[in-house]
Amino acid sequence: MSARLFSTDHKVIGKQYCYLAMVAVTAGILLSLLMRYHLAWPKGHLPFIAGGIMTPEQYLALVTMHGTIMVFFVLTTAPQNGFGTYFLPLQIGAREMAFPVLNMLGFWLTFAAFIVLLSAFLVRGGAPISGWTAYPPLSGLGDITGPGEGAGQTLWIVSILIFCVGSILSSINFIATTIDMRAEGMDLMRLPLTVWAWFFTAVLILLSFSVLLASGVLLLLDRSFGTSFFIPAGLVVTGQLQTHSGGSPLLWQHLFWFFGHPEVYIAILPGMGVTSQVLATFSRKPIFGYRAMVVTLGMIGLLGFGVWGHHMFVSGMNPYSGFAFSVLTMSIAVPSAAKTFNWLGTLWGGKIQFTTPMLFTLGFVSIFVTGGLSGIFLAQPAVDNMLHATYFVVAHLHLVMGVAAIFGIFAAMYYWFPKMFGRMMSEGLGKAHFWLTFAGVYCIFVPMHFVGLAGGIRRYADDSGAAYLSALEPVHRFMTIAAFCTAAAQIIFFVNFFHSLKSGALAPTNPWNANTLEWTVASPPPADNFGETKVMVYRGAYEYSVPGADTDFILQNVPPADASHRNGNRTGGRSHE
Amino acid sequence: MSSYIEPIALREAESANDAIPQRVYPTGMWVALGGILMFFAALVSAWVVRKGLSTSELEGRLELPRRLLAVNVCVLAASSGVLEVARRRLGAGDVKRFRRSWYTATALGIVFLAGQFLAWREIAAAGVYVTSNPDASFFYLFTGAHAIHLAGGIVALLLITWRPMRHLTMATATQVAAMYWHFLAAIWMGIFVLLMIASR
Amino acid sequence: MRSGIGIAAALAIGFLFCTILAAHAGAQGCAMCYQNAAASGAKGQAALRHGILILLIPALAIFGCIFGRMFSKR
Asked: Which residue from B99, B104, B143 is spatially nearest to B120, judged by alpha carbons?
């Protein structure tokens, strides 16, 4: 049993990460439902709260824990560590990851971090209230600043530090595996886009989580050892003068957002890789502009670092260099737009198969565009001055991260379930899940933009005191009901998942007629992935509907002679070498 | 510690599958060193920003035990050099002298840590603690973080010569251990220069 | 050459997009950060600029080195 639990097989570890993310997302959704209930009915009674009505501090604790659980244990874990750990070796033709023991350690550290985080609910004072961003001085002074800021905040920081170590270890694994363990013939330009996405995400994780690790250590020192990295002098909290001096809360922001901005790209890049993969498979067409897709993935990763700097890079610059900075700042939109155009180009003229993974992928594109558009509003400083810290930001970030990235995870799960578990999921239940969720998330988050525009402020527990805010209560109620319905719709997914595990139809080796190497082995794959046969790769990952070929797909390990009647025809993939 | 008497084998990896090539270990170490570099860069960045944003004029300067620290830098540099000599000897097949040099380098690393500890004692004796002023905080932070990494390195150096490893050849193991060690020495030299400039 | 046209078209549209909005872009999504930084005095601003570069340059260099190593082992 312990051999299985502490297995170093990347397929087992990938599944462990997926299960952890499933537990985490359930916890995160439950917390969000509590928040939405309170926003819609601020005076509503809850049975398990002393006094019946949620206090603002309790609301903030929910905000903090919901954000932390979702950002770290769902969005950083599932798309990268869950599916990546499982499928990276398979897609590059390797038997294992480069460092199997490190792989196992990475998972168990992440698991330990989750347990430590949840334990913050159980200590005196409860969970921290400083948000997932944990700004000092609120987070830096101990329980004098509020309930949950004592042991709860310390546990939060410790959890994040453990998570950082686990993530960094697994990113080392991803990078080394991708560089050094590709099968023969698997050249860079033949890699599936999922592999590229995991690679760039791993580099982002390596660089940004190392900085978060340092920041967390500094914050812990401020709290436990009385240092003053972030705490300024002369602070009077609850009538007590603090002895710290000379620190700066701005320093925390400087360090945290170096991590925080790449983090959102860490959350979305794997989903973009999966989107490319699924769109090509179910359009029966090569991905439009493969090389551009690789370049844009890299550019999003690279530019993601620069954007953080521009928040704070204040200098008495002349207006012309301001132009350069502006262009650089906005340029992050270019690769994202390019990817969207290329996805549409992939669909154009294709023989679309509306399977469940395809539906979720199309939903990803739709929601990514919608959420991206509201981001452009926020990018204008004049507008952002008004919209900052309103529900407009909450709506934007949830659409791109909380919905689009989740749709990417769902698409990946529906796409790869046959391979991982050897059974097919129910298409009917899957489609029901998709449509209910798709409608539901638009119902929740589109009105939220208007709440923000009207001045609805985020992280406020109770708006009923101000007339202009309490007028928005009907909108909050609508969003809350939509949230409950959408959350209920997720039950369909879980029913589908667990029922199919036991009783789904047995999955063939390649149910989707896809090209990449994981579809050349049994469902589920054997322990050593490819057996004794040496994996040879002869072509790119997107040779669908190749003119003159017998079938509308050609697996990557099919040698040229077997593909029939090609004779040097130009194809959509890069099969020559 | 080790009752290991036989010479260390210089064999290639013999796992039946030969699934994991040796080249992944240097690659993995390079990547890990990138992460560690970012960690220390974050600390340096924090120091620079902290000093610039500081609102308190009363923060004192840090009096560092310069001579002790300078000697310590030489000790660490020497241990790096001896480690390289050890690797040369291993490559030449001279296992006995390899082990001698390897343990000498390890011992020098332990001496370095002892020297760092002495430096802490000296500063604390002068009444400067981690909370005293930002330079002091960062001094303890830099030296502490570096010492923890180095201690891990010492453990690794010893483990490598304890018994043959399952997946790494001695050549690979000593190569990645040396990469880590030299990197930490270089980081320390950088930090040392920064500390000297700041405490002038 | 479809992918070539695809790249060119995307880049052209993107650049036009940039130029139209360039005058207004200054701090993507965080007016608070910019204002906080601007309010921190000359020494603070300089310190932040240096602090940003100390993080940014190693990060981009490591990014480049990893990618370079990947490419050299194609």
From this structure: B143
